[in-house]
Design a protein that fits this description.
312 residues; alpha/beta; Alpha/beta hydrolase; AB_hydrolase_fold; hydrolase; hydrolase activity; AB_hydrolase
Length: 312
């Protein structure tokens, strides 16, 4: 069965990168990386979430690349990065370190933005040398550090062992998602997006999520189910902002509030009424503005150009 491709028109159509490269992670895994915007401009690094790809950040890339160097990469098994038997938060941190080392000059600082599992990647990497060298500030979108399955409200049941057990089996299902049909769009919208999400938002997200191989979706679901990154949150010492949707069923606002209380330097929590889990798609202008403001506040003047690398 062929996998759906991203949308090709509108603000959620992925723009063509200036260049592409392959970063090599600590275990030798190749990581697909895209670079957008002018060399030497202030840098932004984007880490997408579970079942997504670089296409998820299309709206942010399109706006920021006019005057920022935007670096986006595919997590293991997602998009154009091959799957790997190593599925863990340590592997996520290794991969982010590899991307930073491959794309940023020594000492160059960047704003890191992570959505969902991408935010967890940032938390997992908070003590890593490359992260501490390059991270100027962080934006966490729709994410959490622990208890993801017990706190999920995808099922309209009372909290407790029964809801946790059923939710875990649903999120960890090996079942194929199949083609993007009207019924599939309705299910995805209910589970991951706010009730007023526009059809173009739903279509863009459905195509991205349905393109994720079911084996990859299943493997990473187990990592998320046992997640415990509270220690990484306490080590995330750079200025950090949080964006969350009040209608998020996958990572309800309780997670964002816990992060805001635990972070050493939380610069603000924005809760968006009626918005679901897919904040960069559902509230693209606000997320882009938050990233741009963090760059203005915490990244110095334009950096020297990074030497060009061979395209992958």
């Amino acid at each position: 069965m062929s996998r759906p491709s991203p949308v090709t028109t509108g603000r959620y159509a992925p723009p063509a990168p200036v260049r592409e490269l392959t970063a090599t992670s600590a275990d030798g895994s190749p990581i697909h990386v895209e670079v957008h915007g002018p060399e030497g401009a202030p840098a932004v690094v984007l880490a997408h979430g579970w079942t997504c790809s670089t296409a998820f950040w299309a709206a942010q890339i399109r706006e920021l690349a006019s005057d920022h160097r935007v670096i986006a990469y595919d997590q293991r098994g997602h998009g154009r990065t091959p799957a790997s038997p190593a599925c863990s938060t340590d592997a996520l941190a290794d991969d982010l370190e590899a991307v930073l080392t491959a794309t940023l000059a020594p000492g160059e600082r960047a704003v890191m933005a992570g959505h969902s599992m991408g935010g967890m990647t940032v938390m997992a990497a908070s003590t890593r040398p490359a992260f501490r060298e390059h991270a100027a500030a962080v934006l966490l979108c729709s994410t959490g550090s622990t208890r993801l399955v017990p706190e999920s409200t995808v099922l309209p049941l009372r909290p407790g062992r029964v809801r946790t057990w059923i939710t875990g089996h649903i999120l960890g299902s090996r079942a194929p998602l199949g083609p993007v049909t009207p019924a599939a769009r309705r299910i995805l919208k209910y589970a991951t997006m706010g009730p007023t999400s526009a059809p173009d938002m739903v279509e863009a997200c459905a195509r991205i999520v349905h393109a994720c191989p079911r084996t990859v979706r299943h493997a990473w679901s187990h990592v998320l189910a046992t997640l415990d990154l509270d220690a990484g949150v306490r080590e995330l010492t750079v200025p950090t902002e949080i964006v969350a949707g009040t209608a998020d069923r996958l990572t309800p606002p309780v997670h964002a509030r816990a992060l805001a209380a635990a972070l050493p330097d939380c610069r603000g929590l924005t809760e968006l009424p009626g918005v679901g889990h897919m904040t960069p798609v559902e509230a693209p202008d606000l997320v882009t503005t938050r990233i741009r403001d963090l760059v203005t506040a915490h990244v110095s003047a334009p950096q020297p150009p990074v030497p060009a690398e061979e395209s992958a």
